[in-house]
UniProtKB/TrEMBL annotation:
Sequence ranges assigned to domain TPM in this UniProt record: 139-203
UniProt superkingdom: Bacteria
Keyword DNA-binding annotated: no
Protein name from the UniProt record: TPM domain-containing protein
Family annotation (InterPro entries): TPM_dom
Keyword annotations of the record: Membrane, Transmembrane, Transmembrane helix
Pfam families the record matches: TPM_phosphatase (PF04536)
Amino acid sequence: MAKAKYLSEADHQRISAAVAEAERLSSGEIVTILADRSDGYTDVALAWAALVAFLALGALAIAPDFHMDLYDRLFADWGHEWSARMMFSLALGTAALAFAAMMMLQLWQPLRFLLIPGPIRTMRVHERALRAFRIGAERRTSGRTGILIYLSMREHRAEILADEAIATKVEPGVWAEAMTAMLAHLRQGDNAEAMIAAVAKVGPVLATHVPRMEGDVNELPDRLIEV
């Protein structure tokens, strides 16, 4: 399945320029990542399919005559008596069809993500952002001044994670202003401006708590990573 394209090349350049400007007065390093999604949620899809299969079996148990008559009409299977083996086969077929149908329906991505509970989305996005932070920003700078701004589009979730030298000086609530600025643009469908707004809010925080040191070099790339 092709990955959705959320930003143009010009958008990438604008975000890179915003990161460079935000880092100009600070030794902090900002990493920006925009993800199409943070997980495939196969386990959630399987859980929904299993639930639908269970409900189909429940319906068969409640109204067995209806299902047996339906089978007879569909397959014109006249003149037989329903044995235990046939009943078990009907139950197995009903459950299998319900399971397969629900899995097929969830191939349509809007429905798949609609069925994912909010807390699960939040948890998976946080886990993915944390992995990305550990790979791309945490302890990747000499002063441990990396910060990650992570945006996951299909889940409608964002994360801001800071390395040790920043996290120990800044209360988590400080990042709320950056999150608010980002969400305001996301609601308008402007993904590039959302990331730029977050970067612009993070810059002064970094300049205050980790001001630029003499001889400071750019240790992490300014370009946005789109995955």
